[in-house]
Amino acid sequence: LTEAKKLEEAPNVTNLLLIARAYSYIKKIDSELTILHNNYEKLQENLKYIQQKDKALSKLLEIYSTTQNPNKLINVCHSDYCLFPDKESIAKAYHINYNALTVLETTQEVFNTTLEIFTKEMEEIKVRLKAQIKEQFIKSIYIGITILILIGIAFSIKLGVRKYIHDNERIYTTNKIINFLNITLIVLILLFAYLDNVSYLVTVLGFASAGLAIAMKDLFMSILGWIVIVVGGCVHAGDRIKIIKEGAVYIGDVLDISVLRITLYEDITLTTYRENRRAGRIIFIPNNFVFTTMFSNYTHGGMKTVWDGIDFTITFDSDHERACHIARECAKKYAKGYTESTRKQFVKMRDRFSLRNTNVEPRVFSLLEPNGIRISVWYLTNAYATLALRSSISSEIIDEILQEPNIQIAYPSTTIYEGRQKQLPRKSDNKAFKSVHLKSDGEIPPQNFF
Question: Which of 89, 151, 288, 316 would suit a FRET pair with 435, their CA atoms being 20 to 30 Å apart?
Answer without folding.
Answer: 316
